[in-house]
């Protein structure tokens, strides 16, 4: 049985030490992005990490993996803050979804 996007529980994994509210923010943004497709979404995962080097440029990484009825989308974004990384990630997902719709 395929689950469509309204039923999908976006799984968010946040690196220890990050603000707990970022998980809800990421879930909300990715859910909004996948709401733009009529394709069944089998699963959606997001992972947020921060590298330990304080001098690093754009130390936060947001990654997403979305299974659209067997076609898996991957997106990644790097930023200075978790919220910025999630916003960029949402933009990348929307862009991929738009390209996928245009190509079909």
From TrEMBL:
<dbReference type="Pfam" id="PF02482">
    <property type="entry name" value="Ribosomal_S30AE"/>
</dbReference>
<protein>
    <recommendedName>
        <fullName>HPF/RaiA family ribosome-associated protein</fullName>
    </recommendedName>
</protein>
<dbReference type="InterPro" id="IPR003489">
    <property type="entry name" value="RHF/RaiA"/>
</dbReference>
<dbReference type="InterPro" id="IPR036567">
    <property type="entry name" value="RHF-like"/>
</dbReference>
């Amino acid at each position: 049985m395929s689950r469509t996007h309204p039923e999908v529980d976006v799984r968010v994994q946040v690196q220890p030490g990050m603000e707990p509210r970022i998980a809800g923010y990421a879930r909300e943004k990715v859910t909004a992005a996948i709401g733009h497709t009529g394709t069944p979404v089998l699963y959606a995962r997001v992972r947020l990490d921060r590298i330990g080097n304080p001098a690093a440029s754009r130390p936060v990484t947001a990654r997403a993996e979305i299974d659209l009825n067997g076609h898996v989308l991957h997106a990644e974004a790097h930023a200075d803050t978790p919220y910025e990384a999630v916003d960029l990630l949402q933009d990348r997902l929307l862009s991929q979804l738009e390209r996928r719709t245009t190509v079909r």
